[in-house]
Design a protein that fits this description.
258 residues; alpha+beta; Alpha-Beta Plaits; six-stranded antiparallel sheet; 21% strand; binds guanosine-5'-triphosphate; binds magnesium ion
Length: 258
């Protein structure tokens, strides 16, 4: 068939409309993809225990695990309705295209959560880029601090709501109040914030761990050991500086340390 006159110009003009498609994640930089449940305040209020629900958190851990596995990440961290996945510096999937990384991580998170929970759920996604190992440590410490703040606030808010206060009233009582005020509010209701489960206050991590597997070498007819890797869920994460050291161990494993 004869080529349509100017068809290559037409193709180029249409392709030019895909104006974000050429964007790549910077080479050799650390990248973290963060997915966040869209409209989850309503979903959780309708379906899950307040302020925290172990089943909801198990669904979020399922999302974190799926992302870490499919994106071949280094570490995943979940708190509230979000998951952050750290990609290795030399990550080369999808030619490091930003649109692919962001849209596929949101798509996978939505599918994993919907499968676990049994109803439609959707996530947004964004990419964070950092140059240094310390930036990665700071990033996760930032999200963990957010987990602590939200947990304290959530516990106070729902304690007041369960006493019969309207949403606006509960929010007004807590607005601009210090951490000490909120700890005290809970303490007077028999809740010691520091004794609450770590996953609520500090979030949960998922990381690869190495283990030795007993096998059989058919060539030599001997028992053989092979080193494999599997995903491990860390529900008792340390806090602050100790969390920083835990993260350094993951991003600079001993064999690679200088
Ligand atoms: N009931 C309940 N709610 C939770 C739990 N974990 C997180 N949430 C709620 O999930 C919501 C997460 O906050 P946001 O992401 O800012 O709210 P959102 O409605 O998802 O808003 P967008 O992300 O902007 O769409 C908060 O309302 C939390 O209280 C849980 O275990 N139980
Ligand atoms: Mg959300």
């Amino acid at each position: 068939m004869k080529a349509r006159k100017g068809s290559s110009g037409f193709e180029a003009r249409m392709r030019a409309g895909e104006c974000y498609h050429g964007q790549r994640l910077p080479p050799a930089a650390w990248v973290i993809l963060r997915v966040d449940g869209h409209g989850f305040s309503r979903l959780t209020e309708r379906r899950f225990g307040k302020p925290f629900d172990p089943t909801f958190h198990a669904h979020m851990v399922a999302v974190a695990t799926a992302l870490l596995e499919r994106f071949q990440g280094v570490f995943a961290y979940t708190e509230s309705d979000e998951v952050s996945v750290l990609l290795p510096r030399d990550w080369d999937m999808f030619d490091r295209e930003v649109e692919k990384a962001v849209s596929l991580s949101a798509g996978l998170a939505s599918a994993a959560f919907a499968t676990a929970c049994g109803e439609v759920a959707w996530f947004d996604s964004r990419a964070w880029v950092g140059a240094r190992d310390e930036d990665v440590v700071d990033y996760f410490r930032w999200r963990q601090a957010d987990a602590g703040r939200c947990a304290l606030n959530g516990w106070c808010y729902w304690s007041l709501r369960k006493e019969g206060l309207a949403a606006g009233e509960a929010a007004r009582i807590l607005h601009g109040r210090s951490r000490a005020f909120k700890h005290d509010l809970l303490f007077r209701r028999g809740v010691n914030f520091n004794d609450l489960p770590a996953w609520q206050r500090r979030g949960t991590g998922v990381a690869w761990e190495r283990f030795e597997k007993e096998g059989f070498d058919p060539l030599r007819g001997l028992a053989a050991r092979a080193v494999r890797r599997r995903l491990a869920v860390h529900r008792e994460l340390p806090l602050k500086d100790e969390f920083g050291r835990y993260l350094e161990g993951l991003i600079r494993p001993p064999a690679a340390a200088s």
